[in-house]
Amino acid sequence: MKRTSSNASTAAHEGPLFSASSGHLKSRTVAGGYARITIEVDRLSTPEPGQFVLLRLREGPALPRAFSVLAAELGRLEFLLKLDGTLREALARAAIGTEVVVRGPYGTPYESRIGRDRRYVLAGGGSGIAPLLHFAAAHPELTEAVAFGVRGRAVRDLLPETALAVEEEDGETATDRLRKRWKRGLGILACGPEPMLRGIAERYAGEPGTYVSLETRIGCGFGACQGCSIETRSGMLRVCRDGPLFACSEVPWLR
Amino acid sequence: MAALTVRALGLEFRNPVVLASGPAGFGLELAESFDLAKVGALTTKTVTLEPRSGNPQPRLVDAPCGVLNSIGLQNPGCDAFRAELLPRIRAFPTKRIVSIAGRSPEELGTLAARLSGEPGVDALEVNLSCPNVRGETVAEDPQSVRAFVHAARSASTVPLLAKLPGEGKYLDLVEAALSAGADGVALINALRGMRIHTETGLPLLDRQAGGLCGPAIFPIALQRVFEARKAFPETVIVGTGGVSDLRGALEMLCAGADLIGVGFAVMADPDAVFRLQGELDEWLTAHGISNVKELRGAAHRGGIHVR
After folding, report:
1. Cβ separation of A220 and B214 shorter than 8 Å?
2. Which residues from chain B sit within 8 angstroms of residue A219, using beta carbons?
3. Which of A68, A89, A106 is the last residue of a domain?
4. Residue A36 lies in domain
């Protein structure tokens, strides 16, 4: 896994950068209903783990779609996509070299949302493992262990650098793995399908240091349109700007 | 350099591009990265008397060439708007149109009275056509349009726009709004539409219908503006609906719009919105047109350059 070069992200914390950049699909591997793609793009500050970018194909859906990042370095972004949406399927079919419009990065980096006073078990499911892998690579000092729920071997082939344990081989879900690796004093960073997050919330919401990374259909990406707003204990908050990471106790409806 | 200034509603807009109510929020996030002097006006998200938390997720559902939105008028309410947002909006280097909605004419009147005369409120836009608040889409008959607009008019001294739907007998609604004292109309609001989840067979939006916006509705909005201009040659029209580029802006002007409302594009491609004034200037200059007002309603009088 490539290290995120945090120093290279010059503008990530100087306020949002709106300008869309024209990037190109550089490479793609497809397996088990997922695709790993690389997009080369200039003039974009490098996303921090937990941040996302908006992607749009000229011939794709009119409203760009938010994707969290698997790995990032200056001028190069990698994504892990589950192939179940119009844009995602278009990205799985597009010819290498196809133009992809990229805007961002947006969202609050995980690191600035969590306490640095503990280490975390990273619980991920499906394409939700992408930002957690990004986080683990950038912050080994905060990462205690991973607990990923990935169904098939095929997905591991997309991520050869990770030695991913898969459900198909050992029968364990993300929640099973989390149960084995978590102990009092550790935090949790969870990102994945809602049923998985609900399961984690049910068991660990009361524990300090439990965070969930949430997904909604994001509109503008920069906090203006309220398209992604969710109910929290502190009122309506925007997944795109106030999140995507929230303290699990802040979102009681998840249980 | 062509003249882009538009005089309308007794105000001077630096150029005809208006950020429509909704996607731009209250302009605060856009102001971090864009120069608001590049648009003629900002229309705020709709403000209501009491705070509203809006609709549950999902609030945005993709549609061909656009999106269905179901935000549900989330806003902090009139008092918080005045205390916390207006002082910041006041500083924007553009005109500020404040969108308002009420559940009854009385409530709307109260709201209009509280905002009218506040520094930084250059005009009010009465939202009579939000597709996303149940039982409150008041603009379906001319009588209620008249009652709401009359209430806002009586309570305020600033220029007043009525934001109307592009569905049903919309020309009757324009007539009703103008006869009740509106200084102009914003046409059209998002059109009601829906989508269904094919695995469950159920509507994707909690309220079934949402407001369809984006390029999908552009030809419809254009035709409504054209018809309204034909019927009301003098009234101020903010032509709104799916304009996302220079060509759309030019068509909207030719159809008869004084000002061009841009909503969806602020969400999808904000850079393009803030490039519009420059592109408009270049286009006019390249076509030997010295003033943007020469385009207004060109489709009604034999086309561009013909007077």
Report:
1. no
2. 23, 59-60, 67, 69, 267
3. A106
4. 6-106
